[in-house]
Amino acid sequence: MPVILKKRSKKRMKKIISHVKFQKLIVPRPDVLHGYLRHEEINRYLEYLKNRYSFVQLHVLGLTHERRQLKAIEIDWNSEQNLEAVERERTRRMLYDKSAVTPLPQSVKPGSQGRNTIFIEAGTHAREWISVAVALNCIYQLTEKHLRNYELLRKLRFIIVPVTNPDGYEYTFVKNRRWRKNRRPIRHSRHIGTDCNRNYDFHWEDGPSKSGRNTFKGLKPFSEPETRAMRNILRKHKENLLFFLSLHSYAESIMYPWGYSKDLPETWQKLEKLALAGRNAIKAYNGRSYRVGSIAKLTKRRISGSIVDYVFGVINAPLALVMELPSQALGFQPPAESISPIGHESWFGIREMCKMAYDIEAPFLKLEATLLAKALTNARQPLQEADAASNKQPLYRALMPAIKAEQVLKNTQVPVKG
After folding, report:
1. Which one of 24, 69, 101, 240 is at 20 to 30 Å from 279 when CA atoms are compared?
2. Which among 321, 339, 361 is the end of a domain?
3. Is 324 a catalytic residue?
4. How far is Cα 166 from Cα 181, in angstroms, rounded to an integer?
């Protein structure tokens, strides 16, 4: 072969190899709005979002009994990686066309917000497919439709686990659509599976102990890999956790702790206000009316070892709710044509509850109080040493740090609705 032809063929081969490498990076986008996705398709969608958006990260929380990955998606507009990307894009646009660029809205600096994390989990009970579909709809709204929800993303960080029980979820597709528990065999028993929503270490001992029951609590608290993985990520973010939401079906209700007792927590009025905000938003959207109340009272039974009670009672999240999606008429797996309507109506309620959570427990109020108190304490020290009555100049100088601190806080504070 002539030398020229050899060089040409080498160049072609390099182009083909580079094209193949590029193709491997492309992750196809599954249809998340109009069908029930399998676990593999859900992970593919999460990978697609991670590759597309700089404010999205994926976390592998652990492995299930059948070696499936339990994944969480983190959506954080104020992450350093995203803010750098936004600044680069802004600079590029300025160089391209200075007249067409308008200043971008200021984002909140990372790490300065205190409690600003919204945590949503779904798919704890394998047969409740609609809860997984609604969680995916929330992810879709916060990523692919992020411009519509910029004000929400600017204030809050979201961590969403769309399938908390992957083994059981997959089992419902291939074997038994009514399966509820996970798939780990029970030691010294012929039965398989534990109800992950009875396996958390909060009044766990009061739960059902018969291994054959659908609500079996497990041999000990956190005996299951899924609940241990959830425990670990919740502990990691406990200082920043503002609002925890657990999605289930199909009782059409928004409920707050406690599940283990009919007694109400001290802050039940705050929790009810949050639940009513979601209920009213959904009713205004399409007329569907959710029930609101405590878990034990609405279900008319005691539920021990649940994740919501654990998050509220042990992790000490200020706000925690259960949202039971529609509907008894449609069952745990509504038909495909109902997935998108239920997903969108649920998002209206969830979005309103997130906004209300920020207003109820505004992160900046505590920060402002702490900084101002520190400034005033520092200002009082020279006052005790100097004689303010004989000379007013030290009083003015002593108060200046506090005055400046208050002015800075007023200028930098994110507005909080009344």
Report:
1. 240
2. 361
3. yes
4. 10
What is the SS3 string spanning 287-303? CCCCEEEEHHHHHCCCC
- What is the domain extent for residue 373? 364-412
Q: Residue 90 — very low, low, confident or very high, per pLDDT cuts 50/70/90?
A: confident
Statement to judge: residues 327 and 371 lie in one domain: no
236 Cβ contact partners less than 8 Å away, ≥ 6 residues apart: none
What is the spatial distance between Cα 144 and Cα 62, in angstroms, rounded to a whole number? 27
Indicate whether 263 and 321 sit together in one domain. yes
Positive or negative, the CA dihedral 163, 167, 171, 174 is positive
Last residue of a domain, one of 326, 346, 361: 361
326, burial (CB in 10 Å: exposed 0-12, middle 13-18, buried 19+): buried
Residue 216 within a domain: yes
**Residue 389, both tokens:** 């009555």
Specify if 192 maps to a domain: yes
Q: Which two tokens stand for residue 32?
A: 């998340």
Instruction: Name, in order, each residue with C-beta under 8 angstroms of 77's C-beta and a sequence gap of 6 or more.
Output: 55, 107, 146, 150, 153, 154, 157
Catalytic residue among 121, 324, 345, 352: 324
Are residues 299 and 372 both part of a single domain?
no
Residue 102 lies in a domain: no
Whether residues 268 and 388 fall in one domain:
no
Q: How many domains does the chain have?
A: 2
Query: pLDDT for 299-332, tens place per residue?
Result: 999 999 999 999 999 999 999 999 999 988 999 9
What local confidence, expressed as pLDDT, does residue 178 receive?
A: 96
